[in-house]
Amino acid sequence: MNKKPLLYALSITLCSTSLALADDVEVLDKIEVTTESKKKDVSVQLLPENAQSIIDTSEVLKKMAGANVNRNGPLTGIAQYRGLSGSRVNVQIDGANMQESCSNSMDAVMSHVPASMIDAVVLKRGIAPVSSGIETIGGSIFVIPKTVNGTSEKMEYSADFNLGYTSVNAGAKASALLSASSATHNYYLGVDSESGESYAFDGGENFNTEYERKFYLLGYNFNGEKHSFAFKYNYNDTGESGTPSLPMDIVYAQGGVASVDYGYEISDNWNFRSKFSHQNTDHVMSNYLFRNVVQKKDSITQVNSNAYSFVLDTTTQVGELSFGIEGDDTNHQADIVSPDNSMFHIDNFDTEKDRNSFFIELLSDLNDMLSFSTGLRYTKVDMYAIEVNSSVAMMDNPMGNMHRMRRDAFNTADRNIEDNNLDFSLNLTHKINDTLVFDYGIGYKTRSPSYQERYLWLPLEATAGMADGFNYLGNLDLETEKATQFELGLTYKSDHMFFSPHVFYHRINDYIQGTPTPMMNVLQHNNVDAELYGADIEFSYQITNTLSLNNTTSYVRGQRRDINDNLYRIAPLNTRFELVYSHSDWNFSTELSAYQAQEKVSLTNLEQSTPGYGLTNVAATYTFNDRAKIAFGVNNLFDKKYTNHLNGYNRNNKNTDVGFEANNPRAFRLPGEGINSYVTLYLHW
């Protein structure tokens, strides 16, 4: 099984007689979305209204070719695309760049809005156009929360309700979206509440994976003949939640984003769009909430961020031209204290990162067979950190000496750093005939270091969710990452079949990677050379009017170019097959997902290899009428015990069923969830 998981998955899929829901629970409808500037998103996945078996929105990425999730806890899923993750992937929530308040990404971007409040997750497959955001070296993902747009001249009222339960963790969800809308005015209010206990697996309980969260959404849209206006506010209140692969757990993360959008149709050929947003989030994490420790510590963090965007679109004789000015300024603060010692204090971070960017992009049809989009983006990045201090520096011992030495070196260094980054993208589409299209892409993308990579002055695990068990040091001398990217793909589409394989190659100079230091268990961020290459496939086939087969397959290889080593935490070869059957008011399908063993691991990070595995999921949905339906199913039907390579390692000394070794933080990787039955009721009024 471990040696041939892909073969196993294919054979089981084709032979299975168990069928489950494909378009309602975890399975996602593929749609084509056209943005305001008529640029077509290459790959779009629609998150259904009753996808209640998904705890964290990032889990939906596993359905997308090339995408995956680095998971450190039930609400701590970090987006990965083609081997790049964290700040390398441009993730936007409702068009705004969400910032993580936690220096270890406990409140990962995609966890900010729960799945029940999401309409769609959009992945720009391939080389992201420069218009898709600032610093898109790892691609662009857009999370679109629910909203309301009326069509009637009269005000109409509606309400959507979801109730869900999952057995693997005794998880409960309830959400409601209330609206009053017309063709001109739209008002809406959303509420979501969810909680769960530690999840079970074949062998016990993965302790410290409980969670609780409440979410609130408020919005108003105005759609006039020439003008449009929107105000939105979302607030996320995450309570005590576990992150067992990190050194601390979530006590709370509270805060939200307020945004204002304004659009104006200047003329038939000119259109103006603007957006302003403000985020404020407070976060506390603790090393003793769910664990036994000798010295109790809390980390108190906060993020404040303001962002703006002005975009002007025009249609010319050569094509559609877009000009944009965008930017954000973000302040991160983090202090470490102890409830048992009021004198203990470490200034971890107080940093500022300002990004101001300009782009120009052209979308044009050369003829009936050839079209292209190309653009340039210039970004100026200014970063600064204030002086730091530590109560430990007052101690006359080796630890105190180390704190004093590093504090003084950091405070006397030039911490005001400026980067000037240039991005370029060119995507060419060649239509051979009505069924066959080739895609070619080339890009040059950059990314400035994160505040952790530059300003981590003490060896700590404040690493944006790296979760490799090492302490890290920052580096004020880091250079900007620079990636040259190539893409080749084809799409075959007929009445019954869709087939779209893509291959890619990314050559990254000055890739930021932890490298060994003289100190034991400490790495320092340095610039190295790296490359990533691979392929991903989307496939679907309509067997009959009621039966269809869908598949996504992804492979990426990441390695250093300066030494013989692999990059850390790269998803292995994986595939998903879905056999879908629909009849009358019922929908059924079976899904098989399989991951090959990952043995190409990072020696630098002492990364542990993982065996391959295959999982079977089944489900069904029944639609009573246009106002009510019920969905139910079972994930991991055969209660397979497995290890997801992108899960972190267990760091919780109370997690005895998983296993723990105090002197080896990489001894036991967190297991995947066991058998999980779920049911969801959806009501519309």
Keywords:
685 residues, mainly beta, 22-stranded antiparallel barrel, six-stranded mixed beta sheet
Description:
The chain is mostly beta strands. It has one domain (5-684): Beta Barrel (Maltoporin, Chain A). 5% of the residues lie in helices and 53% in strands. The protein has a 22-stranded antiparallel β-barrel. Strands 1-2-8-9-6-7 form a six-stranded mixed β-sheet, with no helix packed on it. Strands 3-4-5 form a three-stranded antiparallel β-sheet, with no helix packed on it. The radius of gyration is 25 Å and the shape is globular. The model is unreliable at 1-40 (pLDDT under 50).
Q: What is the compact description of this entry?
A:
This protein has 685 residues and is mainly beta.
Q: What's the helix and strand layout?
A:
Elements lengths: L4 H11 L13 E2 L12 E4 L20 E5 L5 E5 L2 E2 L4 E4 L2 E2 L20 E6 L16 E6 L10 E11 L4 E11 L3 E12 L3 E2 L2 E2 L5 E13 L3 E12 L10 E17 L4 E17 L11 E19 L2 E20 L2 E25 L4 E16 L12 H15 L4 E15 L4 E12 L3 H5 L15 E3 L7 E13 L3 E20 L5 E21 L4 E14 L13 E10 L2 E10 L17 E13 L2 E8 L40 E9 L1
Parallel strand pairs: 6-9, 25-28
Antiparallel strand pairs: 1-2, 2-8, 3-4, 4-5, 6-7, 8-9, 10-11, 10-34, 11-12, 12-15, 13-14, 15-16, 16-17, 17-18, 18-19, 19-20, 20-21, 21-22, 22-23, 23-24, 24-26, 26-27, 27-28, 28-29, 29-30, 30-31, 31-32, 32-33, 33-34
